[in-house]
Design brief:
It is a single chain. The protein has helices at residues 10-17, 42-45, 65-73, 105-113, 165-174, 178-185, 197-202, 207-221, 223-248; strands at residues 3-5, 21-26, 35-40, 46-50, 53-59, 75-81, 89-100, 121-135, 142-147, 155-160. Strands 1, 2, 3, 4, 5, 6, 7 and 8 form an 8-stranded antiparallel sheet that branches. It has a two-stranded antiparallel ribbon with strand order 9-10. The model has no long low-confidence stretch (mean pLDDT 85). A hairpin with a 7-residue loop joins β9 and β10. The chain folds into 2 domains: 3-165, Roll (Pnp Oxidase, Chain A); 172-220, no CATH class. By secondary structure, the protein is α+β, with helices and mostly antiparallel strands. The chain is flat, with a radius of gyration of 24 Å. The N and C termini lie far apart (74 Å).
C-alpha cells in the first residue's frame, strides 16, 4: 500500500541518499512529450537540505527538457527505487527553480550542498518538496550476480525477478480482493483525474458524467488561456467601437 508524507522523514532521506540513482519527470503544460531523465549517484550530485527542500546538480546533456519545463510551470517529480533485497519506490513531488551556472548563487548553492564543481554542470535545480510517496517496489528487479565459471574471476551482474508482484496479485485474486483493491487505489490519480474505468464503474459512478466533469475542470484550470481570451475579446471590442467612431466622424 502507498504511504504519503508532507515532508521527507529522516529514515527515508538516508535511504534516498544511499541509492545508486534517481530519476526526474516533468512535462509542459501543453504538448505531447513527458520527459523522464535518470540521474546518477545522489551522494555526489544530490542534497537534502531539510524535510521540504532539496537540490541536485544538473549536468549538460543532449537536451534540456527538465529545465525548460521547470521554467514554464515548476512541476517536477523525483523517483528513487531500490535494486537491493528490500524493495521500495519513493517519489518526491516538487516545485522547482533553476540556478544556472552563470548566476552568482550557483557557487553559493554548491558550497551549501558541500559538493565539488562537476565538469559540465549547467545548473543547480532547487526543489520544494510538498508531498512524498512510498510504495512497495515489487515490480522493480533485484540486482544480483550470475556466476559464469570461476566464482572470483567471473562474477557477472544481472537483474533478477523478485517474484513478488505476481505472487501478491495471485493472493488478491484468490481472496477475491483484487476488485476492491482496484476500487480503492485505481479509480483516481493523485490529482483526482478519473482513472481505471472498471474500478469507477464498480464504485457506481456514471462514467459519462464523471468524464464530462473532468473535461470542464480541464478547461477551468487553463486560467491563463481563459484570461487571455477575455482580454483579447475586450481589446477587439474596443478597437471595433473606436474604428466605427472614427469612420462615423
Amino acid at each position: 500500500m502507498p504511504r504519503y508524507y508532507d515532508h521527507i522523514p529522516d529514515n527515508l532521506a538516508q535511504w534516498a541518499m544511499a541509492q545508486p540513482l534517481f530519476s526526474t519527470a516533468s512535462a509542459p503544460i501543453s504538448g505531447q512529450h513527458i520527459n523522464i531523465s535518470p540521474k546518477g549517484l545522489p551522494s555526489s550530485t544530490f542534497t537534502i537540505f531539510n524535510p521540504n527542500s532539496c537540490a541536485y546538480i544538473d549536468v549538460t546533456g543532449s537536451g534540456a527538457e527538465t529545465i525548460s519545463h521547470i521554467y514554464e510551470n515548476g512541476r517536477v517529480t523525483l523517483m528513487f527505487c531500490s535494486f537491493a533485497s528490500s524493495p521500495r519506490i519513493m517519489r518526491f513531488f516538487c516545485k522547482g527553480s533553476v540556478i544556472e551556472w552563470d548566476n552568482p548563487l550557483f557557487d553559493t548553492y554548491l558550497n551549501k550542498m558541500s559538493k565539488a564543481k562537476v565538469d559540465g554542470a549547467r545548473a543547480v535545480i532547487l526543489l520544494d518538496v510538498w508531498k512524498v510517496q512510498t510504495s512497495c517496489g515489487y515490480g522493480v528487479p533485484r540486482l544480483g550476480k550470475t556466476i559464469k565459471g570461476d566464482l572470483e574471476k567471473h562474477p557477472e551482474v544481472s537483474f533478477e525477478d523478485r517474484e513478488t508482484l505476481g505472487h501478491w496479485a495471485g493472493k488478491q485474486v484468490e481472496k477475491g480482493e483484487m476488485l476492491r483493491y482496484q476500487m480503492e487505489n485505481n479509480a483516481r490519480s493523485l490529482d483526482g483525474v478519473p482513472g481505471l474505468k472498471t474500478a469507477r464503474r464498480d464504485l457506481g459512478e456514471r462514467l459519462w458524467w464523471t468524464d464530462l466533469t473532468a473535461g470542464l475542470n480541464r478547461i477551468r484550470q487553463q486560467r491563463e488561456a481563459l484570461y487571455f481570451g477575455i482580454c483579447l475579446g475586450v481589446l477587439l471590442a474596443w478597437a471595433t467601437r473606436f474604428g466605427v467612431a472614427v469612420l462615423a466622424s
